[in-house]
């Protein structure tokens, strides 16, 4: 029943996400048609095509990360924090369930939707990129820089998916924590304020102390230290693990606050 309640409350933003996926699919179909019409492999330099594809991957990653994070920010306004603000928390928590059960259902439901959105987006773009690779006779394999080893397209799309999921999960978790903290759906604005404040603080600290580097909000999956060469960043495993821990700290902190709150 609680999942049905979540669906009823989130169906509008879920519908918007579905509409976005449909439009994206239509765009990919059109891009496929243009690639077929142009006969890319016959009329263009394969090296230029490969560079264009790597640049396209970078654009996909950052655009996708921002879009799904925005969806996560909106979704954080739906859940326990919203119920507390509407004075329905006391009724909700009379159910024979621990408070943490409702919180982690909110988190799991939102993260599952974000993961599905990311999977469909990257599946569509991956299929389109695969068409371009087939024209230059490197199906399933992409070169991220001029002198690097070939990398599986599937591995690259998985890295993009993980990076986008971690960023969206961070934004959702922080904003959800904010709604529980102030017991209002308007906690989404507090979450946005914290993010803006972090970016401002990061910029100020780096300006006066250039040797100090605060982590980027979006994990750098690709190495863009050179304007024309893209590679996979080093120490990705450590970065992924660290960001996953930070992402989970917010719902855990929200659970602590919720368990100690007077409803």
Structure description:
This protein has 263 residues and is mostly helical. Helix content is 74%, strand content 5%. The chain contains nine helices and four strands. The chain has helices at residues 2-38, 40-43, 46-75, 80-85, 89-92, 99-135, 153-182, 187-208, 236-260; strands at 141-142, 151-152, 222-226, 229-232. The strands form two sheets. It has a two-stranded antiparallel sheet. Strands 3-4 form a two-stranded antiparallel ribbon. The longest helix is centred in the N-terminal third of the chain and has 37 residues, at 2-38. The protein is globular and about 65 Å long. It starts with a helix and ends with a helix.
Largest sheet: 2 strands, antiparallel
Q: Separation of termini? A: 21 Å
Number of helices: 9
- Estimate the strand proportion: under 5%
* Count of spatially separate domains: 1
- Strand order, largest beta sheet: 1-2
Q: Please state the structural category.
A: mainly alpha
- The helicity comes to over 70%
Please tell me what the overall shape is.
globular
Q: Give the number of DSSP strands.
A: 4
The residue-averaged pLDDT reads: 79
* H/E element order: HHHHHHEEHHEEH
Low-confidence stretches: none
Gyration radius, to the nearest Å? Answer: 21 Å
């Amino acid at each position: 029943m609680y999942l049905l309640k979540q669906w009823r409350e989130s169906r509008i933003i879920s519908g918007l996400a579905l509409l976005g996926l449909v439009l994206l699919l239509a765009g990919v179909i059109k891009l496929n048609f243009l690639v077929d019409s142009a006969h890319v492999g016959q009329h263009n330099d394969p090296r230029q095509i490969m560079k264009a594809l790597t640049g396209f991957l970078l654009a996909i990653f950052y655009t996708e990360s921002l879009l799904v994070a925005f969806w996560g920010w909106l979704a954080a306004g739906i859940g326990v924090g919203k119920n507390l603000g509407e004075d329905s928390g006391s009724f909700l928590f009379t159910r024979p369930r621990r408070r943490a059960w409702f919180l982690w259902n909110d988190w799991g439901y939102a993260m599952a939707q974000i993961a599905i959105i990311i999977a469909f987006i990257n599946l569509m773009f991956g299929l389109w990129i695969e068409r371009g690779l087939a024209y230059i006779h490197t199906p399933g394999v992409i070169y991220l820089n001029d002198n690097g080893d070939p990398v599986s397209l599937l591995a690259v799309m998985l890295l993009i998916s993980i990076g986008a999921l971690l960023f969206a999960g961070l934004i959702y978790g922080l904003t959800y924590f904010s709604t529980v903290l102030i017991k209002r759906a308007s906690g989404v604005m507090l979450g946005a304020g914290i993010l803006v404040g972090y970016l401002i603080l990061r910029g100020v600290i780096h300006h006066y102390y250039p040797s100090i580097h605060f982590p980027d909000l979006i994990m750098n999956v690709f190495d863009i230290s050179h304007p024309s060469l893209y590679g996979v960043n080093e120490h990705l495993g450590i970065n992924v693990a660290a960001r996953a821990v930070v992402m989970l700290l917010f719902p855990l902190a929200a659970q602590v606050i919720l368990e100690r709150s007077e409803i």
